[in-house]
Amino acid sequence: THPRFFGWVHGSGSPGGVLPELVGAAMNANCGGRDHVGIYVERQVLTWCKEMMGFPASAGGLLVSGTSMATVLALKAARDARLGFDASREGGLAGGPTRLVGYAAQGTHSCIKRALDVLGVGADALRIVPVTDAFTMDVPALHAMVAEDRRRGLTPWLLVATAGSVNVGAIDDLDALADVAEAQGLWMHVDGAFGAAAVLSDEVRPRLRGMGRASSLAFDFHKWLHVNYDCGCVLVRDGDTHLRAFSDRASSLAGGGGGRHSPDYLAGNARGLAANAPWPVDLGIELSRGFRALKVWSHLLEHGTRALGAAITANLRHA
Question: The pTM is what?
Answer without folding.
Answer: 0.93
